[in-house]
Amino acid sequence: MGLSWLQPHDPFPSPWNDADPDPEVPGLLAISEDISAEQLLRAYHQGIFPWYSDGQPILWWSPNPRMVLRPKNFKVSKNFKKEIKNVLMDQDWEVKVDEDFHATILSCATQARPDQDGTWITHAIMHAYSQIHEQGHAHSIEVFHQGQRVGGLYCVNLGKMVFGESMFSKKTGASKIALASLCAWAIAQDIEMIDCQQETAHLSSMGGYPIPRDEFLNHVREKTTAINPIWRFNKSVLQHWLSQPT
């Protein structure tokens, strides 16, 4: 069958019926020359995401298995619980939502990562995600220390489904504070799953694990029909983890 080259308004191949069109690149579903906010939203509703390097065409993926994190399974060690207590008690620490989405995605793009040369967060990606942020579908969680943005993440939200995208940290543990905040808020909103896209040891250490693609796609199909929750919280949401056993 081969990979589909998509024009801006072309439908995506079905990840249920047309998955893995190129057996040599499992999970790669389609290719396009450009990326738009409208395409992004259609893709996420079908459990598809873009991931590519600068100079490449836009590569659209639906891998099997799919890495996910169930917020209730987020791992909080004794040491991390102490860090959370410190953040809650120390006025120098703040957690903000959508304070500066563009600054957050730019920080994620410029974050140095082991064994990674360059970034997949290109100018086209930043523009498209900024557009869906303005539409209320992409959000940033930002961690501040003494007024400086020291960590954070950005994600996509459709109904009762959250799709994690990228994190950054300029101070040890700051990105984990952002993720702990997101997970605590998601539990309060009855959001059962955060998409992590691809398996990494770092995500596994925080409670993420792979599930079959069909299971993931069925969950997305069911949960993205709900109304988006209101994204408004601060570091007090972290209190949730202090009552949980380690």
UniProtKB/TrEMBL annotation:
UniProt keyword terms in alphabetical order: Acyltransferase, Cytoplasm, Transferase
Q: Which domain of life is it from?
A: Bacteria
What's the EC number here? Answer: 2.3.2.6
Enzyme kind, highest EC tier:
transferase
Listed GO MF terms:
leucyl-tRNA--protein transferase activity
As its record notes, the protein acts as a catalyst of:
L-phenylalanyl-tRNA(Phe) + an N-terminal L-alpha-aminoacyl-[protein] = an N-terminal L-phenylalanyl-L-alpha-aminoacyl-[protein] + tRNA(Phe); N-terminal L-arginyl-[protein] + L-leucyl-tRNA(Leu) = N-terminal L-leucyl-L-arginyl-[protein] + tRNA(Leu) + H(+); N-terminal L-lysyl-[protein] + L-leucyl-tRNA(Leu) = N-terminal L-leucyl-L-lysyl-[protein] + tRNA(Leu) + H(+)
Task: Name the SUPFAM superfamilies on file.
Answer: Acyl-CoA N-acyltransferases (Nat)
PANTHER family hit by this protein: LEUCYL/PHENYLALANYL-TRNA--PROTEIN TRANSFERASE, LEUCYL_PHENYLALANYL-TRNA--PROTEIN TRANSFERASE
Q: What is this protein called?
A: Leucyl/phenylalanyl-tRNA--protein transferase
Species name: Polynucleobacter cosmopolitanus
Lineage of this protein's species? Bacteria, Pseudomonadati, Pseudomonadota, Betaproteobacteria, Burkholderiales
**Gene responsible for this protein:** aat
